[in-house]
């Protein structure tokens, strides 16, 4: 006869068996689906990886010529006053979006009369129905903004000036997340409709929250406008991203004299007598037209590089005029109030775009803003924090080696303590993915740094490594265009006491000199798939240069307090104006989070002392499953 206690135990076990069967049935199908999906792809949990270098394929060209402005992809396709160079940019969150475009003709010459930007309206007419499928009232909303012009002036004999068309920026508000909208932009008051664009469409980003992510985030840097650049953009478009990050150095307009002419890989070599590095602004207009098929449908998020500095005027006192005028970014929305650095949310990702060519010191405004921004991140709403800036901190190529060491020394600790997950940079014209690292030391809680400045610009691919014989730059090389020089010799490890390593550094996991772009696909709050697509690879899912699952370990890598804790925030972050927490909406769970909760319930209901041997075995298998496939949780 069973004892009362054993009856309870047996009844409990029967209850556990049925609960477990339900849980297993919920787990098995998605497990096998994800196993099939992730088969063979390494994860950062498998690292740190032994450094790997894939040599430059000498059958490929190191560079190619710029596409001329007469090319149909760069030449004007509409006549004024019709809008052109239409581009979208994310705002603070999914419910708002920037639309930008240009009207009127830019002028080049000695004495120019700038356009009056107020003479043309800045309107966006939009709605959830296409005018092609609906009645004349398809556009249920209209948003209005403003326009500006900028000039690039060279008060030197023989040089020409430039003044832009009217550059319009309009912010749409009250959009529904993950929803397709149709729109026309321009000036509706112009008779005959000639002041409006054709109908275009976009799909808004997913709402801020850990349960949804942008489908694909493309990352590209140092793009330029060569034959290689066009291959990169074609490839990128084929991969169908829902958001594009451009990590600086966009047009390379500053490779040209004001009088135009052919681009050169080394401006200072070709034009040693130029008083300041001139820049031929019509290249920007050609670039805007070339990018329009993508940027009019997908948000393009830019951050300035050194090729955007473009000094002008007496002694180069005025800088970044084109970058500041042409792009809308969520600077006010993110509290930075400058286009040189800002942040925004896209689903469960908080993006931080930093400026390397403005003050980055701990006493400066950018550092203070970054500190506050990081504290405001709600990791329950945006588990992922992805940062981007132009020059890399970790770089084993000879080009730009330790160039922005000062910036790293100022900001790295702050980023590390706040567990920034991924950092994208460009500047070096090659690809490199780092092992998780902090302060040049392998660290499982350091960010994954990725250099992706291989977009294809006219300056050609970088192939020399600082550890190649005779390729270590001298400390006098690689001066940054902004900030100081903080070159250091390593204080420990195989390169102790040396400026360069004698082999590929241990923090460099993979490097290769090829043109390409990357795609980031965040799966859930734990797993994100990163794929580097080389231009020479055939288009398709199974052809790529590098691929890895980047895995977050928040339970292992806890957030660490910093000085901004005076903001009186909880360890999870401060209330954010970009957080969805204030909406009052009920919390939602991903499927992985749901499985986790079921698992915890099973463990709670079925006390270990009451488990049968079979049941204990199954629970152990579940624990193993969780260990090896944490992205399920
Ligand atoms: Fe650069």
TrEMBL record:
Residue ranges constituting the Calcineurin-like phosphoesterase domain according to the UniProt record: 216-431
Keywords: Glycoprotein, Hydrolase, Signal
Keyword Phosphoprotein recorded: no
Cleaved signal peptide residues: 1-33
The EC number(s) this enzyme carries: 3.1.3.2
Domain (Purple acid phosphatase C-terminal): residue spans on this chain: 499-537
EC class name: hydrolase
Organism in which the protein naturally occurs: Paspalum notatum var. saurae
Protein name: Purple acid phosphatase
Pfam families, A to Z: Metallophos (PF00149), Metallophos_C (PF14008), Pur_ac_phosph_N (PF16656)
Keyword Glycoprotein in record: yes
Reactions that this protein is recorded to catalyse: a phosphate monoester + H2O = an alcohol + phosphate
Gene3D superfamilies: 3.60.21.10, Purple acid phosphatase-like, N-terminal
GO MF term set: acid phosphatase activity; metal ion binding
Family (UniProt): Belongs to the metallophosphoesterase superfamily. Purple acid phosphatase family.
Domain Purple acid phosphatase N-terminal, residue spans: 83-204
């Amino acid at each position: 006869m069973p004892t009362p206690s054993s009856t309870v135990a047996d009844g409990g076990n029967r209850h556990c068996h049925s609960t477990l069967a339900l849980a297993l049935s919920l787990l098995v199908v998605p497990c096998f689906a994800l196993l099939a999906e992730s088969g063979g792809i390494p994860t950062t949990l498998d690292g740190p990886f032994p450094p790997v270098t894939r040599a430059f394929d000498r059958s490929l060209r190191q560079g190619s010529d710029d596409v001329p402005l007469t090319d149909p992809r760069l030449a004007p396709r509409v006549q004024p006053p019709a809008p052109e160079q239409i581009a979208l940019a994310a705002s603070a969150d999914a419910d708002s979006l920037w639309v930008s475009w240009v009207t009127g003709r830019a002028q080049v010459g000695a004495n120019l009369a700038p356009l009056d930007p107020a003479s043309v309206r800045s309107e966006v007419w939009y709605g959830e129905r296409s005018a092609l499928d609906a009645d004349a009232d398809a556009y249920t909303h209209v948003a209005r903004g403003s326009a500006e012009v900028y000039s690039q002036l060279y008060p030197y004999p023989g040089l020409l000036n430039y003044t832009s068309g009217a550059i319009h920026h309009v912010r749409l508000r009250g959009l529904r997340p993950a929803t397709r909208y149709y729109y026309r932009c321009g000036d509706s008051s112009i008779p005959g409709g000639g002041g409006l664009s054709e109908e275009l469409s976009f799909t808004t980003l997913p709402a801020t929250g850990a349960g949804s992510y942008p489908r694909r985030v493309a990352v590209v840097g140092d793009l330029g406008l060569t034959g290689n650049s066009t291959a990169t953009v074609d490839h990128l478009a084929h991969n169908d991203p829902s958001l594009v990050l451009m990590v600086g150095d966009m047009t390379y307009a500053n490779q040209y004299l004001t009088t135009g002419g052919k681009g050169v890989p080394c401006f200072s070599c070709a034009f040693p007598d130029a008083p300041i590095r001139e820049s031929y602004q019509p290249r920007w207009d050609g670039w805007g037209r070339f990018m329009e098929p993508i940027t009019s449908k997908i948000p393009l998020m830019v951050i300035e590089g050194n090729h955007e500095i473009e000094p002008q005027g007496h002694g180069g006192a005025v800088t970044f005029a084109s970058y500041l005028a042409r792009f809308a970014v969520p600077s006010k929305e993110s509290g930075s109030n400058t286009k040189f650095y800002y942040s925004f949310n896209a689903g469960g990702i908080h993006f931080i775009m930093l400026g390397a060519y403005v003050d980055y010191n701990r006493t400066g405004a950018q550092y203070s803003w970054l500190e506050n921004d990081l504290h405001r991140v709600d990791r329950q709403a945006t588990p992922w924090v992805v940062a981007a800036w132009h020059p890399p901190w970790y770089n084993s190529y000879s080009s730009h080696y330790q160039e922005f060491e000062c910036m790293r020394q100022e900001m790295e600790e702050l980023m590390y303590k706040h567990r920034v997950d991924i950092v994208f940079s460009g500047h070096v014209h090659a690809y490199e993915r780092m092992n998780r690292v902090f302060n040049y030391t392998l660290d499982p809680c350091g960010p994954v740094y990725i250099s992706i400045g291989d977009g294809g610009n006219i300056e050609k691919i970088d192939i020399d490594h600082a550890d190649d014989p005779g390729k270590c730059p001298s400390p006098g090389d690689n001066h940054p265009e902004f900030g100081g020089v903080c070159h250091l010799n390593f204080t420990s490890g195989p390169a102790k006491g040396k400026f360069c390593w004698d082999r590929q550094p241990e923090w460099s996991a993979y490097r290769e000199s090829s043109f390409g772009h990357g795609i980031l696909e965040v799966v859930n709050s734990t797993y994100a798939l990163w794929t580097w697509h080389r231009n020479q690879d055939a288009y398709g899912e199974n052809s790529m240069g590098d691929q890895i699952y980047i895995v977050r370990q928040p339970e292992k890598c806890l957030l660490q307090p910093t000085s901004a804790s005076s903001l009186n925030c909880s360890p999870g972050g401060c209330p954010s104006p970009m957080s969805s927490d204030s909406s009052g909406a009920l919390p939602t769970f991903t499927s992985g989070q749901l499985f986790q909760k079921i698992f915890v319930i099973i463990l709670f209901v079925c006390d270990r002392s009451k488990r049968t041997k079979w049941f204990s075995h199954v629970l152990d298998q579940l624990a193993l499953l969780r260990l090896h496939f944490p992205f399920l949780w």
